[in-house]
Amino acid sequence: MITLFRITSKTDQTAWDIKESVNNIKWETDLNFAAGTLSFDLVNDTNDGRFKPNFGDIVEFQWDDQKIFYGYIFKLSYSENQKFSVTAYDKLRYFKNQDSIVWPISTISQRFETVAKMAEVAYKVINGSNYKLNAEVADSKTYFDMLKSAIDSTQKATNQMYYLFANYDVVELRKAPFQELNLIVGDQSLLTGFSYDGSIDEAANVVRIVKKDQEQSQNVSATADTSETTQTEDPSKTSFSYTDASGDTVSWWGKLQVVENAKDKANDAQMKQRAAELLKDKNRPTYSLKLTAIGNVSLIPGNSINIKIADLDTIGFAIQNAAILKATHNFSSDYTVDLEMKVNEPWLENNSSA
Description:
Layout: E1 2-8, E2 15-17, E3 22-30, E4 37-43, E5 58-63, E6 66-79, E7 83-90, E8 98-103, H1 108-119, E9 123-125, E10 136-142, H2 143-158, E11 161-167, E12 170-176, E13 180-186, E14 191-199, E15 206-212, E16 218-222, E17 229-233, E18 240-246, H3 250-253, E19 257-261, H4 268-282, E20 286-294, E21 304-308, H5 310-314, E22 321-331, E23 336-342
Parallel strand pairs: 9-12, 13-21, 15-19
Antiparallel strand pairs: 1-2, 1-5, 3-4, 3-22, 4-7, 5-6, 6-7, 8-10, 11-12, 14-20, 15-18, 16-17, 20-23, 21-22, 22-23
Helix pairs in contact: 1-2
């Protein structure tokens, strides 16, 4: 049940207890570099005109005395029956701010701390990394994009995944899985529905790394009506060299090819290595497992759960443990949660069941 639901004005610090006036409460959190969202409907039944939510007002929400959400109003609508529809974002919303930074050699922990200070939010490094990232230039990028690049590079080098999570009013850097929950979601426990999908639509089983011949030339031309200068390559002086890698699924799926341009000055060995890396990443199906379950506030992205679904075992898609990528909590007397699970590959070394 709701134990606290409050809106506090940023202008005069007036606090309004609205727990008796809200419904349709939905809390969404996602590991895909997005702010957590709390949406709800609010009936303004005071009839005295004194209360009206405003952009930037603070929203605090607790369920069964557990702190769930702390954030700020970003969207408002008003309709018949004196009803406000409100959307608030947690502090990760400020990681959508853009900036230009020259990053020195540094760790993901150091870059997270720098970004959090620039975003002017409370922060904490729960799980840090000692891996040193290369210096780089981030020009007109969001803080999310800067950290995504750092997290991806760290994961590639260390096989450890890091992510951002707004723990009430503090933004945290965590390592996944953050908590391996001793919870079973399945036929006899919490589960109310599921869907499992697979696809090779984005897969590739032939990878070609392309390098443009160094003897290429360019012709410069201008059009009289626009006076814009364009550059065109001379076909007679342009050629390509290729490095290919093929997977064993070609005979099953047919040839599914992708092309990537080689980095400047890449040699043959580097091109072969890159082709093998890209093939390993692309030559596989992608799967999606979605669960609907009885609500539990510990079912949040970054945590992992145990899964027991007999129907999946029967068709050969046995999944014993998986990590949560996205969670949508629907708070009501029939509290439920919709989960999107990570089922492709482990997040942690030696955790091949995730």
